[in-house]
Amino acid sequence: MAISDRIKVKMAEGSWVRRMFEEGVALKKRYGAENVFDLSLGNPVLGPPPAFMRELKKLVAKPLPSMHAYMSNSGYPEARAAVAAYLARETGVKLTQEDVLMTCGSAGALNVLLRTLLNPGEEVIVFVPYFLEFLNYIDHHGGTPKLLPTDENFQPRLEALEAGIGPRTKAVLLNSPNNPTGLVYSQELIHGMGEILDKKSAQYGHEIYLVSDEAYRKLIYDGLKYPSPLNHYTQSFVVASHSKDLGLAGERIGYIAMHPECRPHDELIDGIIYCQRTLGFVNAPALMQHLVRNLQDESVSIAEYQRKRDFLYGHLTEMGYRMLKPQGAFYLFPKTPIEDDVAFVRELLEWKVLTSPGVGFGLPGYFRICYSVDDRTLEGSLTGFRKAAEKYHLC
């Protein structure tokens, strides 16, 4: 047998997002790409802001010495210091470069951090719905995902969190703005989580860490502000990426930042550096570190993503689809008009519209739409959504 039984099982479970992506490839071959409306994959449509190209041209014109060589596994000091300074300005928490490590995107950051933290069988709390790969990352490093419900607006329930924490809980994993719902967790919620985690850490005699996946932190709409866990709980980590805010998904550049008072600080840093090296990441991409250190205050056009949200949300709600209005990220997560979300998503394929079923995010009865696509795709998808709405008498 070529591959392990365990990996065979995991591959069979698979990712619905990737399955739908493959369906889209087949449909495009059959009908032509211009006739298929793929809203399944969160691939940012907006390219890097102009400042990125300016910085890149500077480096091409005047390359730095040893610009592509190995550096410390934690990353260049200048890049770490730039991230720390940005987060300090944003939160008021006095981070320094000693609190930041550059990584291969937020996925690399999560894998490095979970490898550092988890003993076999220790639990990581994840709220439903979730980004499916979270469960794979936890499993890869010997942990056990513990899934907790959210309310009708996808808000985590503080009482469920308090009841769900046990002696083997090592971390709580948050994702805000959330994939797939677009929800931004409130300051009151984050503060309440911090109070619960303080109490439970004291009760069980060990630190319970709060890990915040902030890949979409800058993609927030309607003037909302992002409440950072760093302001509400000292035993917290931020994992982040420039995939979405700078349109650099393929470059795999991100970071881990920890609260300066996170305990035991130096031991955690040493563990993260060791895991960065031994998991094979070695270090974050050198060229991208040089670039993003001068781009911490830059982003793609938030207004453009908000315009796309408003366009699709407005049309779909007019057709009768029911959903929360996203506050961030670039996803809609409507209820399906029938109980079987997989069957409904397959019906949309009949009209050449690709989405992802809610079961892939742990919550059947919903489906995810990604609006980080060009306007032609958004506009072209409306016919299929309307036909489905008419079939199920939504309008």
Topology:
Layout: H1 5-13, H2 16-31, E1 37-38, H3 50-61, H4 77-91, E2 100-103, H5 105-117, E3 123-127, H6 133-140, E4 144-148, H7 158-164, E5 169-175, H8 187-204, E6 209-213, E7 236-241, E8 254-258, H9 265-278, H10 286-292, H11 302-319, E9 331-332, H12 341-350, E10 353-354, E11 356-357, E12 367-370, H13 375-391
Helix pairs in contact: 5-6, 5-9, 11-13
Short description:
The chain has 395 residues and is α/β, with parallel strands linked by helices. The protein has helices at 5-13, 16-31, 50-61, 77-91, 105-117, 133-140, 158-164, 187-204, 265-278, 286-292, 302-319, 341-350, 375-391, and strands at residues 37-38, 100-103, 123-127, 144-148, 169-175, 209-213, 236-241, 254-258, 331-332, 353-354, 356-357, 367-370.
